[in-house]
Write a structure and sequence with these properties.
Shape: globular
Number of strands: 0
Order of helices and strands: HHHHHHHH
Distance between the termini: 55 Å
Number of helices: 8
Largest sheet: none
């Protein structure tokens, strides 16, 4: 993680507002959108060394969700690290504090050689491209009615 990327509180607030509006409107996020959101939020926290604050009081749940997101994106190295940390939290004794496990995870993530930002970006691009290849509108939706070949004559 040579480059440090982060987002501002305003960015988080706007994303949260978007989620609230979507939920209020009864719209559902696709699986890919949820995966992307989860991976991005986790990776920003890891990149800005805010994992402890990010996982809060529910580290096992947050790590499980992030693990599933990175596995779905196709980044098994990160998914495996998250699974190992989550399993360590489950087996933790009073001698091993959750903060120590998260510090070890942070250290491992800091030393990854893979371009995780780029891999997440590639997943986002692939999801966008697959949607563009499969439009969800009807040909007559924009009042054009006639097939494309009839309009070009």
């Amino acid at each position: 993680m040579a480059q440090r990327h982060g987002h501002t509180a305003a960015t988080s607030a706007s994303v949260l507002e978007m989620l609230k509006q979507t939920q209020a409107a009864g719209t559902r996020f696709s699986h890919s959108e949820r995966v992307l959101y989860t991976a991005c939020e986790f990776w920003v926290a890891a990149s800005s060394h805010a994992l402890t604050r990010f996982v809060g009081n529910i580290p096992k749940i947050v790590l499980r969700d992030a693990e599933a997101a990175f596995a779905a994106i196709g980044i098994p190295s990160v998914a495996d690290m998250l699974r190992d940390a989550r399993n360590s939290l489950v087996a933790a004794t009073p001698a091993i504090h959750a903060w120590d496990i998260l510090a070890q995870l942070q250290h491992r993530l800091d030393h990854l050689e893979q371009p995780i930002d780029g891999m997440i970006g590639r997943f986002a691009a692939e999801q966008t491209w697959s949607r563009l290849k499969q439009p969800t509108f009807e040909p007559g939706m924009f009042g054009l009615g006639a097939p494309a070949e009839a309009r070009t004559r």
